[in-house]
Amino acid sequence: MRKLLSTITLLGLSALAMAQADEGAKIAQKLSKKIQSAQSVSCTFSFTLENLEQKQTSTYPGSISFKGNRYVLNLMGMETRCDGSTKWQHIAEANEVTISTPEPASSGEFWSNPVAVFSQYDKDFKSKLRGELKVKGRTVYDLAFYPRNLNLPYSAITLHVDKETLTPVMLKYHGKDGNNYVIGIEQFKLNKPMPDTQFSFDPAQHKGIEVIDLR
């Protein structure tokens, strides 16, 4: 009888886990579809580094605008522009720009390919709906994502999505190096007009700039 009850319990837990995974995948697909169907996306956010070993946190403001695979990211004194085929990382204080080829979307890292963060959860990760939470008066889905690529520098991503508007509220990377990276989204807007010229960078317009070309 005990073996039978144990088997039934395990089957029940397995079914519950599968249901949570299926529901998490559905929410991820809806979020991905909504963002990919938008003409453009722009948001402001706070970026927090959590050092678990030293129990210290540091927070910085940031912003991102993107259209398709093109984006402009401002964070920690560096402006990154990408037109889809070339990436420029400009540090104004040092009057320096580094030119490189964009990383593949499958990298899944916000700082290397921020566009993928908002649209790749239904493809490159296993997902799970852990439940719903109340955050600052809003009801959010609490989702966990586990990368299929085990070589990435983080073990999981927590994503909070507003249940009513289906927009991202918070992203948290659980790093393997003892650091967590938290992106708290403050404003999130769709379909704001953006000229294509804003996604490229012309070093010739910056007198005396040092160009580091890694292509």
For this entry, give a set of tags.
alpha+beta; 19% helix; disordered N terminus; 2 helices; 12 strands; outer membrane lipoprotein receptor (LolB), chain A; 215 residues
Structure description:
With 215 residues, the protein is an alpha+beta fold. It has a single domain (2-213), classed as Lipoprotein localisation LolA/LolB/LppX (outer membrane lipoprotein receptor (LolB), chain A, Clam), CATH 2.50.20. It has helices at 2-37, 114-117; strands spanning 41-51, 56-67, 70-75, 78-82, 87-91, 96-100, 125-135, 138-147, 154-162, 168-175, 179-190, 210-213. Strands 7-8-9-10-11-1-2-3-4-5-6-12 form a twelve-stranded mixed beta sheet, with helices on one face. The termini are far apart.
Summarize this entry quickly:
With 215 residues, this protein is of the alpha+beta class. The chain has helices spanning 2-37, 114-117, and strands spanning 41-51, 56-67, 70-75, 78-82, 87-91, 96-100, 125-135, 138-147, 154-162, 168-175, 179-190, 210-213. It is built from 2 helices and 12 strands; from the N terminus they run αββββββαββββββ.
| Number of helices, where a helix is a run of at least 4 consecutive DSSP H or I residues | 2
- Taking all Cα atoms into account, the compactness measure Rg is 20 Å
User: How does the overall form come out from the CA principal axes?
Assistant: globular
What count of structural domains? 1
Distance between the termini: 66 Å
- Provide the succession of SSEs: HEEEEEEHEEEEEE
Mean pLDDT over the residues? 84
Helix/strand-derived category reads alpha+beta
Percentage of residues in helical conformation? 10-25%
CATH class designation? Mainly Beta
- By CATH, the topology is outer membrane lipoprotein receptor (LolB), chain A
- Most strands sheet: 12 strands, mixed
The CATH superfamily name is Lipoprotein localisation LolA/LolB/LppX
Looking at the overall shape, the CATH architecture is Clam
Q: Biggest sheet, strands in spatial order?
A: 7-8-9-10-11-1-2-3-4-5-6-12
